[in-house]
Design goal:
Layout: E1 3-8, E2 25-30, E3 44-48, H1 53-66, E4 72-76, E5 92-95, H2 100-114, E6 121-125, E7 128-131, E8 136-139, E9 142-143, H3 148-159, E10 165-166, H4 167-175, H5 184-197, E11 204-207, E12 211-214, E13 223-226
Parallel strand pairs: 1-2, 1-3, 3-4, 4-5
Antiparallel strand pairs: 6-7, 6-13, 7-8, 8-9, 10-12, 11-12
Helix pairs in contact: 3-4, 3-5
């Protein structure tokens, strides 16, 4: 029995009725990247593409780029099959009218393929996905071109959301005790990091006369995802 997550425009509408005849635990949430911050841990994700192929393709590409570490299956109608191409970045596709045996087989095979992948840690918060294994970061699917120290600064702040750190603390944690530069270095790196975050620069907050913190909204929480 697996834990399945369905992204769908209407969580009350059964995107794949055959799932109701199987023993898997199923959670349905609205189809948007922001909802993943609060999503439960899952073994496999399904995306309901029955009614909006263009929007579903864009969301699949965002999820693929974010490399969330679980397989992704698209649910579509018979007529929508022709629109699903390799550039969607999904692991499989299933027709919404598929029977229980076919759906169960696709779920088992997709999860089985991922079980052989070595786990690596990801941090997901406020739309920012940080891959600690590859030293890469993305914001809502867009790759960030970060230097090593910029990545380390972002990773450290995102690992402690809402907690305020002084410049001296950040120097110690990110640059190390043997760093001889001044706290101005922190300000410079924060400014550069915000510039690369673009419209999402607000995730790095300033607390006047104290230091910096990673901002998330009250209804968000940090997720650490293994893949």
């Amino acid at each position: 029995m697996a834990q399945l997550l369905i992204l769908t425009p209407d969580p009350e509408d059964e995107a794949l009725p055959a799932l109701g005849l199987l023993g898997h635990r199923v959670t349905a949430i609205p189809a948007s990247p922001e909802q993943l911050v609060r999503a439960p841990d899952s073994d496999l994700m399904l995306l309901d593409a029955r009614s909006n192929l263009a929007g579903s393709k864009a969301l699949c590409q965002i999820l693929h780029t974010a490399r969330l570490g679980i397989p992704l299956i698209v649910v579509t109608t018979e007529g929508g099959l022709a629109a699903v191409t390799p550039d969607w970045g999904v692991d499989d596709v299933v027709v919404n009218t598929a029977g229980p045996a076919e759906v169960d087989a696709r779920v088992r095979l997709a999860i089985g393929r991922f079980e052989t992948v070595k786990p690596t840690a990801h941090i997901l918060a406020a739309g920012v996905v940080i891959d600690e294994a590859s030293y890469s970061a993305r914001v809502h699917g867009r790759a960030l071109d970060l230097t090593y120290k910029e990545f380390e600064l972002l990773r450290f702040l995102a690992s402690h959301p809402t907690r305020v750190f002084t410049r001296e603390q950040l120097l110690s944690e990110v640059w190390g005790y043997d760093y001889f530069g001044g706290t101005r270095t922190v300000d410079v790196h924060v400014r550069r990091l915000r510039a690369k975050l673009g419209d999402f620069e607000g995730v790095i907050g300033t607390v006047r006369n104290v230091g910096y913190r990673f901002n998330i909204s009250d209804d968000e929480e940090l997720s650490v995802i293994a893949r």
